[in-house]
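User: structure tokens for this one?
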Amino acid sequence: MDKITAHNKIRQNESEQMTSLIGMVILLGSLAMFFITIMASYGILRVRSSNWGMIRMGNLAVLLSWFNLIVLMGSSYVFSKISKIAKETTLTASIRWVDSTIICGVIFLGLQIFIWSILSSNGYLMTSHQAGSIFYMASGLHGIHLFIGIFLLLWFKQKIKKQEAQVFEIKLIGLFWHFLTILWLIIFFSVIIF
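Assistant:
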């Protein structure tokens, strides 16, 4: 390969990375606006409701939600290891960290479904009151996006195994994954705890 062809390939790769980064920023901005709208609706409904404080999830659901928060924050920490290892060694060395992040995500989703079943058996339903509708909508939409994040991690893991993965791709997935963790912190402390 001559120098001009190599230089053009590098410029094309940099251009593709910039396009991917801009796309991810637009996606995260759109998701942020969507969830801000949900949280604004929550705030308005809560301020206008005279009996919001009487509606409680129950101690077990809140305790499991705390554990779920720790699992998701741990997954973000584990994910940060992927980027660090990918910079220092090869992407192949980061497969166990990708697996750990996937496991944390699956635990989070499984526990969230279990929390929903506890709440629904205690009458805390989407249709029973405004608090339930906001909780199920916010946590359900977050869960869908976390499922997408797990799918992205599985896709990236396959690319690592085929030795087609790039460090930049893990940075993009990382932006999405960390965004979901921050989003869950907001949902947790405003809808579940407050």
